[in-house]
Design the sequence.
């Protein structure tokens, strides 16, 4: 899963490896994006990055739960979220939310240009309205529930 945030938009590209004709290749499964809420715009960069990971896990839980997967991102804060010693209340809530994935999830930091799909989504976010499948209400906190 590739995740990327750009300004006011979050984007995720979920991919799966396929094996065929003695070759393996990566194919897309799902793409999601959304605009950030006004309250989220006040978050500092590290909080925004971690919020984004939790949002992506929540929206794609049916694809990810019980599977071994990688989160590929260019955010350092996402990788450090699991090991924070004194997180603030948002970060603590998000740490708890991703605990169920901890054994199956690997976070890979990639500062390069490998996440082009998610990057493209983050530059073209759908408005945060009820018709959008990625809609998040203005006062909802991301919570992962299976």
Sequence:
């Amino acid at each position: 899963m590739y995740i990327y945030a750009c300004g006011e938009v979050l984007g995720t590209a979920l991919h799966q490896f396929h094996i065929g004709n003695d070759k393996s290749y990566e194919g897309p499964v799902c793409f999601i994006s959304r605009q950030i809420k006004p309250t989220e715009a006040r978050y500092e960069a590290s909080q925004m990055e971690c919020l984004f990971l939790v949002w992506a896990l929540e929206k794609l839980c049916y694809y990810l739960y019980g599977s071994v997967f990688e989160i590929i991102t260019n955010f350092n804060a996402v990788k450090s979220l699991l090991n924070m010693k004194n997180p603030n209340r948002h970060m603590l809530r998000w740490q708890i939310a991703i605990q169920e994935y901890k054994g199956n999830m690997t976070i890979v930091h990639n500062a390069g240009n490998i996440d082009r799909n998610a990057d493209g989504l983050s530059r073209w976010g759908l408005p945060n309205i009820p018709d959008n499948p990625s809609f998040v209400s203005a006062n909802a906190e991301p919570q992962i529930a299976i």
Notes: The beta strands are 2-6, 9-20, 23-35, 69-73, 105-109. The mean pLDDT is 76. Helices lie at 45-59, 61-64, 76-81, 89-98, 116-122.
